[in-house]
C-alpha cells in the first residue's frame, strides 16, 4: 500500500475526509480537536510503560469477549471526530476494523503525564467522551512528584460524568467490570528499580 503525500492543513479546520487521507506517520499521533489537526509526539517511555502495564492488568481480568487495546483511532461525533485514547476496552472482534466507534467502547483511559495532557484529559476529552456516550472513562495521572493516581468518570442518567475522588495505591472498581489495578506498578521500572 502506498500513501500519497497530502498537505497538512495549518491554521484552518480539517475535515474528516482530509484527516483520513493523511499519510501514515508512526512518529507522531494525530487527532482532530475542536476541528483542528492536533499533532503530538509519540509517548515517552514512562507514559508507554504505564499504557503497556495497564493493558496487561486489564486483559488478565476482563471477560473473554472484551480486550484492552493501546492507541486505537476512535470515531466520535462533534468537533473532535477523531481521537486516539491511550487505552480502550472494546469487543475482541474490533481487530477487523480500521477504527472503533464510540458505542463500542466500554472503557476509555487516558494517561496524563504532563500538565498540558492533564488539562486536556481531565477536561476537554472528558466532555467529548461524555457527549459520545462512553459510559466509563479513567484518567491515570503519572505526574512527576506525585503518586500515580486514578480518577474514574461514570456517565449518569443525564449524560454527564460523575467524577470519583482520585485514588492511589491499589484501585478496585466494580464498573464496567470488577477490576483491581495496582497503580504503582504502572510506572515502576523492571526489576523494581
Characterization of the model:
This protein is an alpha+beta fold and 193 residues long. Helices cover 20% and strands 31% of the residues. The chain is built from 3 helices and 14 strands. The protein is globular, with a radius of gyration of 17 Å. The N and C termini lie far apart (43 Å).
Quote the average pLDDT. Answer: 91
Helix and strand sequence: HEEHEEEEEEHEEEEEE
Low-pLDDT sequence parts: 1-6
Shape: globular
By helix and strand content, what is the structural category? alpha+beta
Structure summary, number of beta strands: 14
Terminal residue distance = 43 Å
Q: What is the radius of gyration computed over CA atoms, rounded to a whole number of angstroms? A: 17 Å
Tell me briefly what this model is.
The chain has 3 helices and 14 strands. The chain is of the alpha+beta class. Residues 1-6 have low confidence and may be disordered.
Helix and strand arrangement:
Blueprint: H1 16-20, E1 28-33, E2 36-41, H2 45-61, E3 66-70, E4 74-75, E5 82-83, E6 87-91, E7 100-101, E8 107-112, H3 115-131, E9 136-141, E10 149-155, E11 161-163, E12 167-168, E13 170-173, E14 179-182
Parallel strand pairs: 4-7, 8-9
Antiparallel strand pairs: 1-2, 3-6, 4-5, 6-8, 9-10, 10-11, 10-12, 13-14
Amino acid at each position: 500500500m502506498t500513501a500519497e503525500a497530502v498537505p497538512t492543513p495549518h491554521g484552518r479546520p480539517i475535515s474528516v475526509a482530509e484527516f483520513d487521507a493523511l499519510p501514515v506517520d508512526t512518529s507522531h499521533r494525530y487527532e482532530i480537536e475542536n476541528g483542528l489537526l492536533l499533532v503530538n509526539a509519540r509517548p515517552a517511555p514512562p507514559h508507554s510503560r504505564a499504557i503497556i502495564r495497564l493493558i496487561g492488568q486489564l486483559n488478565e481480568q476482563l471477560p473473554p469477549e472484551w480486550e484492552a487495546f493501546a492507541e486505537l483511532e476512535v470515531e466520535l461525533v462533534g468537533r473532535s471526530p477523531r481521537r486516539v485514547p491511550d487505552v480502550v476496552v472494546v469487543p475482541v472482534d474490533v481487530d477487523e476494523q480500521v477504527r472503533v466507534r464510540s458505542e463500542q467502547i466500554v472503557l476509555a483511559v487516558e494517561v496524563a503525564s504532563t500538565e498540558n495532557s492533564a488539562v486536556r484529559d481531565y477536561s476537554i476529552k472528558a466532555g467529548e467522551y461524555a457527549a459520545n456516550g462512553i459510559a466509563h472513562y479513567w484518567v491515570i495521572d503519572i505526574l512527576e512528584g506525585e503518586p500515580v493516581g486514578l480518577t474514574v468518570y461514570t456517565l449518569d442518567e443525564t449524560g454527564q460524568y460523575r467524577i470519583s475522588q482520585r485514588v492511589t495505591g491499589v484501585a478496585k472498581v466494580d464498573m464496567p467490570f470488577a477490576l483491581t489495578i495496582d497503580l504503582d506498578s504502572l510506572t515502576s521500572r523492571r526489576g523494581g528499580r
